[in-house]
């Protein structure tokens, strides 16, 4: 993996070069092993939290980990195109618009002892902006090259905080064209429901049960690209103990291996149906 500027990353994508890089400010990674009609993203995977913010932050390191999506990059790392956040959503949230990306409060609790200065906020928002410049270039190239592409937008959620039974997998589809894509969304839900986990973990998959797919990443791509389907795919944190901060690597590995075959199979079926 090499360290590259945003300009260099965009140049490589526009030239359809294969590469693996971290952005020069270490805010995200991107890997392109081959240009295919699908991409995977783990925008909440990051846990970095720049040191100049530490003393002013009222949330603990565990508080941040609890609300992030740890291991989601590992679940999709075997695919040809992967983009993932390195920074914690507590610095700036890639799944929120620029206006709302830097939190004042987080999950009902004040985040900062003192309000952030404009300079500190701008530093975070530049990283948010740069990420979306790269996303825009990537989707533009994939749509232009293939006529259609699918983005698997991987997230996780804390299932133990719910006071009812919740699914292992949730697809959020309220901001995509369900008349157009309803059948392939159902195919993806069905595929996820068939995954067999270790440790007697049940695999259930529902649509718009715990989350509806209201994230900025999905909205940005959907609003700017008419021939790209974003599948906001949330796994309950059955792969860790969300209260003890223990990751279960055998469960993460199972998800990784299952998605290794299920994502390309589904992506190919979607492409065959919608390519021009």
UniProtKB/TrEMBL annotation:
Pfam families tied to this protein: FGase (PF05013)
Superkingdom, natural source: Bacteria
Entries under InterPro entries matching the protein: N-FG_amidohydro
Record's protein name: N-formylglutamate amidohydrolase
Organism: Wocania arenilitoris
Lineage, opening ranks: Bacteria, Pseudomonadati, Bacteroidota, Flavobacteriia, Flavobacteriales
């Amino acid at each position: 993996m090499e360290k590259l500027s945003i300009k260099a990353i965009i140049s490589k994508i526009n030239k359809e070069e294969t590469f693996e890089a971290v952005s020069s400010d270490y805010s995200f990674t991107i890997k392109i092993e081959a240009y295919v009609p699908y991409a995977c993203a783990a925008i909440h995977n990051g846990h970095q939290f720049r040191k100049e913010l530490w003393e002013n932050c009222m949330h603990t390191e565990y508080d941040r980990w609890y609300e992030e999506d740890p291991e989601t990059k590992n679940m999709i790392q075997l695919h040809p195109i992967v983009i993932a956040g390195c920074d914690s959503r507590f610095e700036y949230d890639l799944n929120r618009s620029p206006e709302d990306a830097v939190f004042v409060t987080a999950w009902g609790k004040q985040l900062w002892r003192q309000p952030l200065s404009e300079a500190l906020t701008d530093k975070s928002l530049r990283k948010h902006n740069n990420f979306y410049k790269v996303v825009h270039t990537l989707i533009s190239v994939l749509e232009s090259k293939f006529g259609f592409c699918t983005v698997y937008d991987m997230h996780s959620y804390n299932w133990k905080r719910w006071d009812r039974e919740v699914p292992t997998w949730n697809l959020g589809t309220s901001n995509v064209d369900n008349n157009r894509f309803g059948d392939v969304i159902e195919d993806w839900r069905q595929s996820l429901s068939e995954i067999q986990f270790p440790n007697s973990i049940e695999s259930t998959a529902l649509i718009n049960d715990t989350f509806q797919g209201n994230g900025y990443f999905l909205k940005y791509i959907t609003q700017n690209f008419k021939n790209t389907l974003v599948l906001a795919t949330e796994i309950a944190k059955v792969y860790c103990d969300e209260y003890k901060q223990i990751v279960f690597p055998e469960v993460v590995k199972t998800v990784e291996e299952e998605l290794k075959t299920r994502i390309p199979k589904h992506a190919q079926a979607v492409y065959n149906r919608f390519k021009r």
